[in-house]
């Protein structure tokens, strides 16, 4: 057995506390239109799980510490449960949600479940539910590539033509510990990076005053709801150009705009926002399914009524500093810095910003049209999480941004979050038009009314 990676340890401990409710599940559904070979799909799923060792790993408790036990291929059984779909679209949505919310017993179960709903002779929905301990967003690419190759091989009666994976996830888990070294060694990487974080997070507020509608409960329910949003291609292009002029990235523009919006809504001028990083620091990890992401806390200083350009420079510098010290796992940071903790909220931050580009993470089955199938997953792990996906053309041209604000219904009403999204989008439009304006001018009702004459698109809830 191999000890769980440092990032996996945190999810294992959280799963011990919340095993039954699926808080850390990752559900993905695909609509399959065309003739689907059930046996070939079952074979493809099993071969993929055998290839990707994280998907055939159980986690054993040894003295309160999780260890990975990778099952031998002969031990792997991945049932593809075939189900008759409910009669209505709403009933199907309810079934998908119910399956997605079932927790995992990681000591005994593989961190993946598969269900195939039959809607008609040539119409299916494939639901994969994975535990986050074995899966992150990047992993969907290699997962679907492997499944696609294995399915094609199965219907052609042969083995998949895969290149051997250069490393396994267990190699990464061991390498991560070796890279960081010991905190007792002042010259180790972890000691040097902890020194940075102690300075960066000194004096951080325990909690920022978000626009709460209710008092925080002692123990969160984890129930969430969503406000979708959309930026058109013209605005996307303007923001990308502004980022380039500032030596920044679109992510940094969105970060600055979110911080400015929260300040306008009364959150103060020291705005810590958590940022997930891919954590795949070597290309040898690119084809692995696994949990690599780390969480960085980036503080935005909105004090002194800066222009948006000035705020963007502040955010850029803070983000670059964080990215260059991203190797220390977040939980180790919490352990070493020992902030005031509470079961009711996350230490160091309450808001997460996740900005990605739309990648090629699509299942491809011969003769079958594969489409994204929405899954309602009403779970939130933080007070609010803003996820934005940049859409790009084949030559890198901006084609708009889609996203959603996921929020805790323990704390917020939908109208409050709708208002936050509208102000965020209006501020982005104002910044794109006149980035030299100070935040107070940009946030003035007159200025916001002017930029809102061009409609801001809020996607309808489905």
TrEMBL record:
InterPro entries: CAT-like_dom_sf, Condensation_dom. Gene3D superfamilies: Chloramphenicol acetyltransferase-like domain, Nonribosomal peptide synthetase, condensation domain. It comes from the Bacteria. GO terms for cellular component: cytosol; enterobactin synthetase complex. It holds the Pfam family Condensation. This is Condensation domain-containing protein. Residues 3-445 form the Condensation domain. GO terms for biological process: amino acid activation for nonribosomal peptide biosynthetic process; enterobactin biosynthetic process; lipid biosynthetic process. One of its GO terms (molecular function) is 2,3-dihydroxybenzoate-serine ligase activity.
């Amino acid at each position: 057995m191999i000890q769980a990676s440092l990032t996996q340890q945190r999810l294992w401990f959280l799963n011990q506390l919340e095993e039954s409710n699926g808080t850390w599940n990752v559900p993905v559904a695909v609509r399959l239109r065309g003739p689907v070979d059930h046996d070939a799909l079952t074979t493809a799923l099993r071969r993929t799980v055998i290839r990707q060792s994280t998907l055939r790993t159980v986690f054993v408790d040894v003295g309160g510490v999780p260890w990975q036990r990778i099952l031998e291929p002969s031990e792997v059984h991945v049932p593809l449960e075939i189900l008759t779909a409910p009669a209505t679209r709403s009933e199907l949505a309810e079934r998908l949600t119910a399956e997605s919310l079932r927790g995992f017993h990681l000591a005994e179960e593989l961190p993946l479940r598969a269900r195939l709903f039959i809607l008609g002779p040539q119409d299916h929905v494939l639901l994969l539910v994975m535990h986050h301990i074995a899966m992150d967003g990047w992993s969907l690419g290699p997962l679907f590539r492997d499944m696609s190759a294995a399915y094609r091989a199965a219907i052609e009666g042969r083995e998949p033509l895969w290149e051997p994976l250069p490393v396994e996830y267990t190699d990464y888990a061991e390498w991560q510990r070796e890279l960081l070294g010991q905190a007792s060694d002042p010259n180790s990487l972890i000691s040097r990076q902890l020194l940075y974080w102690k300075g960066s997070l000194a004096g951080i507020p325990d909690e920022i005053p978000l626009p709460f509608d209710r008092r925080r409960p002692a123990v969160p329910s984890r129930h969430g709801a969503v406000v979708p949003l959309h930026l058109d291609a013209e605005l996307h292009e303007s923001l990308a150009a502004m980022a380039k002029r500032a030596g920044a990235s679109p992510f940094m523009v969105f970060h600055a705009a979110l911080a400015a919006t929260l300040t306008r809504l009364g959150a103060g001028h020291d705005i810590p926002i958590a940022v997930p990083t891919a954590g795949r620091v070597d290309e040898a990890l690119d084809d692995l399914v696994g949990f690599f992401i780390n969480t960085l806390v980036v503080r935005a200083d909105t004090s002194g009524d800066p222009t948006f350009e000035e705020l963007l420079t502040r955010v850029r510098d803070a983000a670059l500093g964080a990215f260059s010290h991203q190797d220390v796992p977040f939980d180790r940071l919490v352990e070493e810095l020992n902030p005031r903790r509470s079961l009711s909220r996350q230490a160091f931050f309450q808001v997460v910003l996740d900005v990605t580009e739309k990648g090629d993470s699509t299942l491809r089955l011969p003769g079958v049209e594969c489409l994204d199938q929405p899954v309602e997953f009403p779970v939130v792990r933080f007070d609010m999480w803003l996820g934005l996906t940049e859409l790009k053309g084949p030559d890198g041209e901006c084609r708009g941004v889609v996203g959603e604000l996921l929020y805790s219904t323990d704390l917020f009403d939908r109208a409050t979050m709708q208002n936050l999204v509208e102000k965020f989008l209006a501020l982005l439009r104002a910044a794109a038009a006149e980035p030299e304006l100070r935040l107070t001018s940009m946030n003035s009702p007159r200025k916001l009314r002017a930029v809102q004459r061009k409609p801001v698109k809020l996607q309808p809830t489905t």
